[in-house]
Design brief:
The protein is built from 3 helices and 9 strands. By secondary structure, it is α+β, with helices and mostly antiparallel strands. A hairpin with a 3-residue loop joins strand 6 and strand 7. The longest helix has 13 residues. The chain is globular.
């Protein structure tokens, strides 16, 4: 039997026989950025994240609600760099979940006020999502989940997600309300 890097048996890729523990979630994401101050101008000053710790011009850790960090921004391998070219592998986008429609609408208001372009707005049935790029070209999705009871389902009970247009004016009106 072949053994992997840490001595565990290596098995062939195939069907997963048991699922990951349902309590597992994504704790944080680190993004390579070219300039910490420019990145903070977007994530802190536009989106409203709080800086929890900063290491000069090398790294900053930001969060919502006092968590140690949801996003790490660093220049360790990317200071002054450019975004990766299209057609290469890597991160497609980071999804930032908002608690409700009004909070998502407020994020859209902040983006508009800062002149940040939105590249897409989609109602997926299970969620409502806004798509854009940060100053370093990283894909960003700002979204809110619908309650699971409202998720569209097929006749067999499986998810039936959609890609329908999202009414940004209605979303902004909800934020103002």
């Amino acid at each position: 039997m072949r053994r992997g890097r840490f001595g565990a048996p290596v098995r062939k890729l195939g069907a997963v026989t048991d699922s990951i523990d349902s309590r597992v979630d994504i704790g944080h994401v680190h993004l390579k950025v070219a300039d910490i101050d420019r990145a903070l101008g977007f994530y802190r000053d536009v989106l409203g994240f709080d800086v929890t710790q900063r290491y000069g011009d090398e790294a900053a850790f930001i969060s919502a609600g006092g968590y140690h960090h949801h996003l790490g921004l660093n220049t360790w391998e990317s200071r002054g760099g450019s975004p990766p070219p299209h057609g290469t592998t890597g991160l497609y986008h980071v999804a930032i979940r908002y608690p409700d429609r009004a909070a998502l609408g407020d994020a859209v208001r902040r983006l508009a006020g800062a002149g940040i372009p939105i590249s897409g707005a989609t109602d997926h049935g299970v969620s409502e999502a806004i798509y854009l790029r940060d100053p370093d070209g990283n894909g960003i999705e700002l979204y809110r989940d619908r309650p699971e009871a409202e998720w569209p389902r097929g006749s067999d009970g499986s998810l039936a997600m959609v890609n329908a247009p999202l009414d940004l004016d209605a979303l902004l009106a909800e934020a103002a309300g």
